[in-house]
Write a structure and sequence with these properties.
Length: 704
């Protein structure tokens, strides 16, 4: 149970001054994007961990001819002319000119209420304006200033004020007030860190550090390396590492079983394969078999770049479980992928005498109940499926091995649910996401890792080109030549808008345009399609009935059509590098020479340019991931949420990388001395786990 003194922190933010149910929703969207339920509330805790990203320093008021390139400023100006948009062009912004004795500044408002602006910005009057400066065609402007106040009001404002990341519908004033109210609610907490360690580091306690972070006095106080920031980052990283160590210990403690296997089925499978295994595949299989044969429970990660051939490794491991009389489960993150595994593995399994079935959300009624009966009777050896495999009523006769494909696509909660279901089964998780070492540590802790370091022989490098989308005509011409010569290509439309429907409309438009250019050959798949429709489109692309597959990113994971040799990605600048790498991995799988075209729109910034350049330079997924991390920081990498990576609220994986290593060692030491967190410090550490919402792990302790 959560320590009662934390309760005030987990209380809803509703009721803080100015926060009603409606605003709480807005807050929740900003503060808890990863929350499990859509209507999760924003809590006091969420406000506390929402740290300032800047500060308004009203002590300093630059003249208009001395405005900085960027950043938040406060200026004293005289209001000039109002320039509403012409009536027939409501989408254009409303502008207000302002000036002082050195220059001018434009205030910009979209969707403005003219009456309101007339009231707060009367021409000829003095106003103090705070906001973020931007430059447009050489002139400074501030869009939607944070504050517009008269001289009287200004005199009453604090001279220094933190600036928080905001979202639509939330004003800085209200958020700031809510955070200040939340700070009042911090209860007294036990110290969970080692006293000597924090003393040596010169860190204060949790509450004091948090308060200080919310009250920056200088820009230096916002740095990632202030003692306060480091203290809280270390807290968070320690919570993360403790939780992972607990999960791992818990799993290892449950006695596993020994699956030695006879090797018979595996021998038949290897004979049936149309290729021989790579050296990496063989050594990964040997490591897995060694773990399976040992009495301890296996907990192993198989990491292998896109196309390195993880599926067959999984199959051989599953076969070893079956040889020992048990069953295997093979879970994929999407329906498409589960069907594809089923389709490619069926012929092999038939030859080897393995009974293979599939269960997804789509198997219903009679089919489903027959399947469940056969599964419970042990008449199915290997069950492939989506997370439908772990619904409550799915009961295996004797589940020995669970393989999770593309496991980063599953959330931490799903993984824990699954581990509960799998009881004492061995666990093999596979990922193609080449997670940099630092991040891997935050996701897996000290899991055993096998790596596929080489690709199957005969693969040709993919020729990657980066092009502006203005050259679309050339792209279409090239595509025409390819399709006329009988080739196959993917065309990926990005998810760019916040709304899936808008994106979908864009993808559909693109598909229509391409279908006009290439009649009879173009198909479309997207995430909103019904399962059967998706399958049909994928199947006809696989069969070659359609040769141009327009898609949103649903093809990203795992899809395997060796005949496809061209991958075109629109708005490539909007994708994470890991995602682009995954997409590119869809081609270069067969004997043909493959090309990947990364189209970008508009002018690229420095970072975007550097990112796309890396894609052109290397196909090494690990290097790409390291560079991506370096260029963008962990928060943005891969779209953390979709990748199932932990979301850190305070810590920054790049800036705090050494703390992470220390936290890992610390977690190991703590649990070696106090496995059940039963000492006074252990009790305090339980507070920490709850505070950073790693409390799933606490339940594992009490479960024994
Ligand atoms: P991933 O690791 O991305 O899941 P897959 O398991 O889908 O890769 O394998 C990619 C492709 O490589 C498949 O078409 C598979 O049949 C083929 N493949 C796997 N292993 C080998 C090998 N040793 N030699 C040749 N082709 C292989
Ligand atoms: Mg795969």
């Amino acid at each position: 149970m959560r320590p009662p003194r934390l309760n005030p922190l987990f209380a809803s933010a509703i009721g803080l001054k100015g926060i009603g149910p409606k605003l709480d929703k807005v807050l929740a969207r900003l503060l808890r994007p990863g929350a499990a339920t859509a209507n999760a509330e924003a809590r006091i805790l969420d406000l506390l961990f929402h740290l300032p990203s800047g500060l308004i320093d009203r002590r300093e008021r630059p003249k208009l001819d001395a405005l900085p390139e960027k950043g938040i400023v406060t200026v004293e100006v005289t209001v000039g002319k109002h320039k509403p948009p012409p009536p027939h062009l409501k989408r254009l912004p409303y502008r207000v000119e302002c000036f002082d004795d050195t220059g001018s500044l434009t205030l910009v408002f979209f969707h403005a209420f003219a009456d309101h602006l007339q009231r707060v910005l009367p021409p000829g009057e003095t106003r103090f304006i705070s906001g973020s400066v931007d430059w447009f065609q050489g002139s400074p402007q501030i869009a939607h200033p944070d504050h517009i106040v008269s001289a009287d009001e200004f005199a009453r404002l604090p001279l220094i004020e933190p600036v928080y990341p905001l979202t639509a519908g939330l004003s800085p004033k209200i958020l700031g007030r809510a955070v200040r109210a939340a700070l009042e609610k911090i209860p007294s907490l036990p110290e969970w860190q080692d006293e000597a360690w924090i003393k040596r580091k010169g860190w204060g306690d949790f509450a004091a550090s948090l308060r200080k972070l919310h009250q920056p006095q200088t820009h230096g106080d916002l740095d990632m390396l202030t003692p306060e920031r480091l203290r809280l980052a270390y807290d968070e990283l320690l919570a993360n590492q403790l939780a992972l160590s607990l999960v791992r210990k818990h799993m290892k403690r449950k006695a596993g079983r020994s699956f030695a296997g006879t090797g018979e089925i595996r021998a038949r499978l290897v004979t049936a394969l149309p290729y021989s295994l790579t050296a990496s595949q063989s050594s990964a299989i040997a490591e897995i078999l060694r773990d399976m044969a040992a009495p301890e429970r296996m907990l192993r990660l198989l990491q292998g770049d896109v196309g390195s051939g993880k599926t067959v490794v999984a199959l051989l491991a599953l076969a070893a479980a079956v040889e020992s009389g048990a069953q295997g489960a093979f879970m994929a993150p999407t329906e498409i992928l589960a069907r594809q595994h089923f389709a490619t593995l069926t012929p092999l399994c038939e030859k080897a005498g393995l009974r293979l079935s599939i269960l997804t959300g789509r198997e219903k009624g009679r089919v489903r109940s027959d399947l469940l009966a056969a599964l419970a009777a042990g008449e199915i050896d290997i069950l492939i499926g989506t997370h439908a495999l772990f619904q409550d009523d799915v009961a295996f006769h004797d589940l020995g091995l669970v393989v999770i494909d593309e496991q980063h696509r599953f959330g931490v909660h799903q993984r824990l649910a699954l581990q509960a279901k799998a009881q004492d089964a061995d666990l093999l998780v596979m990922t193609a996401t080449p997670i940099p070492r630092t991040l891997a540590l935050t996701v897996y802790g000290d899991m055993d890792v096998s790596k596929l370091t080489e690709k199957p022989a005969g693969r040709q490098p993919v020729d990657t080109r980066v092009m502006p989308s203005e050259r679309m005509d050339e792209v279409i011409d090239g595509l025409r030549r390819l399709l006329e010569a009988g080739g196959r290509a993917y065309w990926i439309c990005p998810l760019v808008e916040e709304s899936e429907l808008v994106d979908l409309a864009a993808a559909e438009d693109r598909a229509r345009a391409l279908a006009t250019a290439f009649p009879g050959r173009t198909g479309l798949v997207h995430g909103r399609m019904k399962g059967a429709e998706k399958d049909a489109a994928m199947a006809s692309f696989k069969a070659g009935d359609i040769t141009l597959l327009v898609s949103t990113t649903v093809v990203e994971v795992g899809v395997d059509v060796p005949e496809a040799t061209v991958m075109i990605v629109e708005n490539a600048e909007r994708f994470g590098l890991a995602q682009l790498h995954q997409l590119r991995g869809r081609v270069g799988r067969g004997a043909g020479k493959s090309t990947c075209l990364l189209l970008y729109q508009g002018k690229l910034g420095e970072t975007a340019k550097a990112r796309l350049t890396i894609m052109r330079e290397t196909e090494d997924g690990f290097r790409i991931a390291e560079e991506d991390l370096r260029l963008r920081g962990a928060g943005e990498m891969l779209g953390t949420r979709q990748a199932g990576l932990p979301v850190f609220r305070v810590a920054d994986i790049v800036a705090h990388a050494d703390l992470l290593a220390a936290a890992r060692d610390d977690a190991g030491l703590i649990l070696a001395r106090d496995a059940n967190l039963a000492t006074p410090r252990g009790e305090a550490l339980r507070h920490l786990l709850y505070l950073f919402e790693r409390d799933d792990a606490v339940r594992l302790i009490s479960a024994g």
